[in-house]
Design brief:
Length: about 110
Amino acid sequence: MNNGILYGRWVDYAVAVDGLHSDAEREAFAFWYDDFADPDHDARELEENFRDAYMGTFENEVDWAEQYIDDTGLLAEVPDTLRYYFDYGKYARDAFFELAGHRGDHGFHVFSNH
């Protein structure tokens, strides 16, 4: 019991999320802050670190994988007739050994662990 005394460093959350423009981004920031944030950083550093880690909000892991593969051109050299056989679900499953995802009210938020 702490007898009503607050311990630790407190961050002005409103300042930290000032640059976040959507409810989905603010929700993602809350998940990221709980899991990854260094409480010794100021609000500007927190937002910067969040933006470095935040990969976006998607419907689910497979939607993330489809978008990521399209954005990076990972299958660009693969003919369409073969691309049909690519398993985005398995790719997403393996990718999330290195990534973090949280389901929220505004979608599935994806973060790099680096």
